[in-house]
Design goal:
By secondary structure, this protein is mainly alpha-helical. It is built from five helices and no strands.
Length: 133
């Protein structure tokens, strides 16, 4: 049962995790001092790398499910890096937060790494399903 006239399956729900991830980033960025126990122990740039690596990974997965094809990881990097830029600008309006080029570069680097890892994982899954069929 597809739920769509013509029998095509709905693919947009695969983007829901990416939307929820983006909402979580926004919520944390709206706080003056988010996750103090973590930020006191882990380097700021590593947190940005991990945060946007995860975001780009779920974006890659969602875009691949939409049928974007091999370019899914590229679009995920562009979207995640653009979101990182808007997030940095947003932080400039939050008390005790700032907009930093270094943070955005860490966001973009994390997005690239996360998208590439997700694309490699998806390729591996596809190759295994082809072998199993």
């Amino acid at each position: 049962m597809s739920g769509v006239p013509g029998g095509r399956p709905r693919r947009w729900p695969w983007l829901v995790p990416a939307a929820l991830y983006a909402a979580a980033i926004f919520a944390l960025s709206s706080e003056s001092h988010p996750l103090p126990a973590l930020t006191a122990r882990v380097n700021d740039k590593l947190l940005h790398l991990a945060e946007y690596g995860g975001f780009a990974a779920v974006l890659t997965w969602g875009l691949a499910a939409l049928g974007v094809g091999p370019a899914a990881w590229r679009w995920a990097v562009v979207i995640a890096a653009a979101y990182g830029l808007t997030d940095e600008l947003h932080q400039s309006f939050v008390p005790l937060r700032s907009c930093e080029l270094g943070d955005w570069l860490a966001d973009a680097g994390g997005a690239l790494a996360g998208a590439l890892l997700a694309a490699a994982f998806l390729r591996l899954l596809r190759s295994r399903s082809t072998i199993a069929d």
